[in-house]
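Hi everyone, sorry if this is the wrong subforum. Our group has a chain we'd like a structural model of before ordering constructs, and none of us has done structure prediction before. Sequence below.
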Amino acid sequence: MLQNNLHRIIVGSVIVAAASTLLPVARDTLKPLVGQVSRQMRFLIVSAKEGIDDMIAEAKVERMKRHLDHQFIIDYKEVVEEIAE
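Answer:
Right subforum, don't worry. Here is the predicted structure as tokens:
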């Protein structure tokens, strides 16, 4: 039992020592990578937003074109009917 507890204490101490040594190295290594991924994600989000805004604008223009075409057709029919009378 004492040997088992001693084994746990030794393993725990080695893990703490390794973590205190490796964490600063891992942090310094991963920090630029996280920054680069963050910039790429920001670029993708902005690009997607612009694409969606473009699609919405195109849909609005098409809707306005159809509405104007419909108005001109009605006006044309009224002009033709007035001329026919």
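For your construct planning: The chain has a mean pLDDT of 85. Helices lie at 2-84.
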